[in-house]
Amino acid sequence: MAKQNQISPVAPVIALVLAYLVPGAGHIYLGRMKRGLILGITIGALFWSGVAVGGVMTVDPERERWWFAAEMLTGIHGIVGWYRQQDYNSRALRRAEEKGLGPASPQGQAYMDAQLKKDRVALVAPADTVARAYAGVAGLLNLMCLFDALMLGLMGQFGEPPPKLDPAPRTKGRTP
Amino acid sequence: MIAWAPFTEPLVLSFYHELWFLLPLCAAVGIVYKAVRLPRLDHLVREVIFLMLYMLAGLSGLAVVLWLIYEYWP
Predict the structure, then answer these.
(1) Which of A48, A54, B37, B39 gets the most CB atoms within 10 Å of its CB?
(2) DSSP labels for A5-37?
């Protein structure tokens, strides 16, 4: 049952931060356990389905900045995806440097692109569309959850909303 | 496809199969939207199915309109 004006004034901020870091956690913090679990599982599953389709290069800040910004809205999921991409990139960079190729030079860029293809991680159409749409939309959905958690916190609503009141029970016969 | 390593290598897809991936996307959008908006979660599944059908109908209609413009626009 929703209780109003009984939670701490920092609750909206805590709900917002939790909702960003772990999708659904803001709602769980505000006492909406079932909703929080549904949101967390759905957003996580959508993001990781995108990464499963697109591979390690789905979260790519250099090539797809706008999708990357959307993916980062998934919090811990996006951060883990970014870490995996950076981990692959740093290994490819080390290999390029071992061959004496600077990453900024055209030869270095060509070598890096060739490495992506050789390692079979280059993300090409149409898998890139599906992967980035899944991961990016997951982030945008979490943005909606962030706003919802913030608004619920600001309004001081804790817990599930109260059930609808049933109409007065009908009584047969005469009423006193 | 046979040697596909999920989460590492991209899935090899054909453009003909791409549209099937809209179904889970619409389902996820519907679930999150309705989980946030509904005052009670008793009828969540029914509401999500209706919203999914609305989205798919809207996208299909949009596709038909765009196809007509592409084909018949002078």
Answers:
(1) A54
(2) S-S-TTHHHHHHHHHHHSTTHHHHHTT-HHHHH
Q: Residue B58 and residue B52: Cα distance in Å, rounded?
A: 10
CA distance A57 to B8: 8
CA distance A24 to A142: 8
Q: Is B55 on the interface with A (CB under 8 A)?
A: no
In terms of Cα–Cα distance, which of B6, B32, B33 is closest to A131?
B6
CA distance A101 to chain B (A): 25
Q: Which residues are CB-contacts of A84 (< 8 A; sequence separation ≥ 6)?
A: A56, A59
Does B21 sit within 8 Å of A53, measured CB to CB?
yes
ipTM of the complex: 0.88
A3: helix, coil or strand? strand
Please list every residue in chain B whose beta carbon sits closer than 8 Å to the beta carbon of residue A54: 10-11
pLDDT tens readout for residues A105-149: 787 778 877 877 887 877 878 888 999 999 999 999 999 999 999
CA distance A124 to chain B (A): 8
Per-residue pLDDT of chain B (74 residues; tens, 9 = 90+): 557 788 888 888 888 888 899 999 999 999 999 999 998 888 999 999 999 999 999 999 999 999 999 999 87
Interface test with B, best of A28, A37, A38 (most B CBs within 10 A): A38
Question: Model-level pTM?
Answer: 0.85
